[in-house]
Amino acid sequence: MRIAVEGCMHGDLDNVYATLLHLQEVQNIKIDLLLCCGDFQAVRNEKDLESLNVPPKFRSMNSFWKYYSGEKVAPFPTIFIGGNHEASNYLWELYYGGWAAPQIYFLGFAGVIKFGNIRIGGLSGIYKSHHYNMGHYEKLPYSEQDIRSIYHVREYDVHKLLQIEEPIDIFLSHDWPVGITAGGDLKALLRQKPFFEQEIQEGTLGSKPAAELLGKLRPPYWFSAHLHCKFAALVQHEKDGHSTKFLALDKCLPGRNFLQVIEIESGPGPHELQLDEEWLAITRKYNAVLPLTIRNANYNNVHLGIEQCRQFVRNKLQTRGSKPFEFVQTAPCYKPSQPVADGVFHGFYKNPQTEALLQFLELEYLLNKMPESRKPAASPASLFSGCSIDYYGEDIPIDDTEDFKEVDPEYAQE
């Protein structure tokens, strides 16, 4: 099986797909799957731009909307995770994963999916310590702070991934596992990105939860993006002698290393997306404690056993089959000739895919539930009285400014 891996998409689906189609033609190969490591920007319409963490002057529809509307169809099955520049309102609809457009599958805030017999896991977002042990408290319509915190990795989602016992073949994260630079050509990296040196020395370049997952899951392949450069590393796992090939890729721009094609052993096919039994069992076990306030999950309230959940899911899959639920449009499609009026909040869309998955697992739909405990007095800001949290300086690597003709002060900080 040939799998193409792309770094940060930034909504530029047309050019990425065109590049891969050209590669197929000139090299006379067939690409079976495309993986994207975040900043996908699944923007359906102008209203979605309001939930995109990009300064207004740089917000653009780009090309995802064409695939959402049906004007175009992705030429390859595509799986993506979220980064730190996303239409977070849409991705929250698909918190558990699902089709963002025909042929384009979002892996969820955390998730595992099978493609043929290849098992692919992923963690969306980036790590920031001050939000890690909170719940998913953000609610639509998002405030300026919410659109910068909603994509911060939460312990609950990592906890679920740490329950995985069966082998994972490929894992995706947006930011790099902390410490990964020790396994590659550090000198070459610092020649390209000299301002990484201090963070590397301090052990703060990258994600601690991703490093924990790397040590637990030990997949043969791990792909990341976020820092807008290509970097390869090899991680030797002492526990069992296995190794992980790590590769980070750039974003889609001319002359940048944003694509890599790998070959991986697989079964004869058909190569189709399938729901993963173990991951569905983990989801069933932990869904009741999905934290929707500033407080983290209370795992003492988890009462279902994993084997019980596993047998339940197995029986369900035998009856229904393992194909993901069908794509459904939930928001108006962008029409260049009919701009949407500014300032109108269209509310939260219940995605039928999410509803169908939860009904299949016999679980309550919680995503847009407003918990009693989330009152103004319990706002996240109250936890940090007397502290200063930089919501602006964390989001974009310093060199992003070179890609814009006009530098915005929010973009120039790190």
Automatic annotation (TrEMBL):
InterPro entries linked to this entry: Calcineurin-like_PHP (IPR004843), DBR1_C (IPR007708), Dbr1_N (IPR041816), Metallo-depent_PP-like (IPR029052)
Q: Which UniProt keywords apply?
A: Hydrolase, Iron, Manganese, Metal-binding, mRNA processing, Nucleus, Zinc
Protein localization: Nucleus
**Entry's Gene Ontology BP terms:** mRNA splicing, via spliceosome
Q: What is its main location?
A: nucleus
What's a GO cellular component annotated to this UniProt protein? nucleus
Please give the SMART domains that the UniProt record associates with this protein.
DBR1 (SM01124)
This protein's cofactor list reads: Fe(2+); Mn(2+); Zn(2+)
A GO term for molecular function:
metal ion binding
Q: Where is the Lariat debranching enzyme C-terminal domain?
A: 235-367
Q: Which family does it belong to?
A: Belongs to the lariat debranching enzyme family.
**Name used for this protein in its record:** Lariat debranching enzyme C-terminal domain-containing protein
**Biological source species:** Solanum pinnatisectum (tansyleaf nightshade)
